[in-house]
Amino acid sequence: MGEAGGVTLDADLRLDRPGGFRLDLRLRVAPGEVVTLLGPNGAGKSTTLRAIAGLAPLTGGRISMSSQDWDVPPRRFTPPRDRGVGVVFQEYRLFPHMSVRENVAFGLRARGVDRHAARRRADEWLDVVGLRDHSGHRPHRLSGGQAQRAALARALATTPEVLLLDEPLAALDVSTRARVRAELSRHLARFGGATLLVSHDPLDAMTLADRLVIVEDGREVQSGTPVEVATRPRTDYVARLVGLNLLGGNATGDSVDLAGGGRLVPADPVRGPVWLAFPPSAVVLHATEPHGSARNHWPVTVTGIEQHGNTVRLHLEGRPTVLADVTPAAVAELRLAPGTALWAAVKATEIRAYPAEPGEGGMAGGAG
Ligand SMILES: Nc1ncnc2c1ncn2[C@@H]1O[C@H](COP(=O)(O)OP(=O)(O)OP(=O)(O)O)[C@@H](O)[C@H]1O
């Protein structure tokens, strides 16, 4: 189900909004690839999704799916219902007066699938997302995580070539978010089409994306794998936003053996393959080996120093290699320079740990 392989989304998006905003963005998303658009408020992320869905016509450029043109102004415009696009909107926008099953069947019915077949397909998708028991319920009876799954099932039921997700986890509370993120990641891995996801949460972006495209003021400022972008930020916004140490490893007992070497202990109990994430600001530096309660400390060497606004970002090589944000005062106090040997420490409570899917080890090693 949901296989749509072989089709690449190729978009050269030019869109002028009244009021002066201009989108000018080139995007290619391969089948099976998850691209996350990351950017500040007003950067043009939602406009990008709306343009691809056919909800905001381009003023220039082109949107093509393989050989088929969807939008080539002023020559051609394919209306939304004729594009192979599934959309999961922010807040999910489930129809409140319909049952969960009717919601999932809606896109199929709109495309002319008969009632019986649409219900059957909807039920199959509700099985996939684990909501079969809720198929007769109205959406208001669903939890946030369940509503997210229903919206995903609704989008995938039409077998789209392109899946668009606008802040798919933003409506969830922190405790549900990690679980739903892992579920979503699993569903996206199975989806054979092109996925374009919008987020301004670095953790969602880093963990769900194969590739990040950072957008500021309607333009791409940087793109690359999450690790590439995190380790080599090219703007202050990117540095602040995606500045996240992300380390893959395997949990045994209460500690995690990191794929790139070294060992860390998160506060949360974990088992098996995991990701550990913590911001560079959580890394504390010591001139000599710290004693006391800090379980996570290890020797590092400064290999890079970059000023970003009021903070200084350090590249610290060790086991693990991490990024640390410190104040200019700390740089002076510790006499930091490339080659300086130090001790890095991170509190267990600063480390977010969450299960990794088997085979995700490609990103392991994190900031390196
Ligand atoms: N219908 C519209 N008409 C005119 N201008 C619009 C319209 N929709 C959005 N804009 C403008 O286009 C720009 C990009 O908005 P967009 O919603 O795409 O940004 P975004 O990156 O999704 O931001 P956010 O993270 O806040 O959702 C903004 O300056 C916005 O004010």
TrEMBL record:
Signal peptide: none
Domain Mop: 291-355
One MF annotation (Gene Ontology) recorded for this entry: ATP hydrolysis activity
Keywords: ATP-binding, Molybdenum, Nucleotide-binding, Transport
Residue stretches making up the ABC transporter domain: 7-242
PROSITE patterns for this protein: ABC_TRANSPORTER_1, ABC_TRANSPORTER_2, MOP
Keyword Nucleotide-binding: yes
One Pfam family named in its UniProt record: TOBE
Record GO biological process: molybdate ion transport
Record's protein name: Molybdate transport system ATP-binding protein
